[in-house]
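User: Small ask, check this?
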Amino acid sequence: MKTKSDFILRKMDNMSIVVAVGESAKRFNGVINLNGTVEFMWQKLAQGCTREELIDSVLAEYDVSREIVEKDVDNLLDKLRSEDIIDE
């Protein structure tokens, strides 16, 4: 899966946000604020990865249990799917 190309990560001061451009901007109004962990996951998704690859990447980067990472990844993917932000 991969984030759609018309959702762009931008850094503003100490904040990371995602904004819609192009056709997606017509249906998605607003911005998505990302914390550091979600920004890390977004960057992995922008490159393209599977759910398992994303989980493994987070586990390699952060000291957290697999159970927590799986839950967080699934929550993020559910939100991105509900807003039609990722292609699978």
User: Anything to note?
Assistant: The radius of gyration is 13 Å. Helices lie at 24-27, 36-47, 51-61, 66-82.
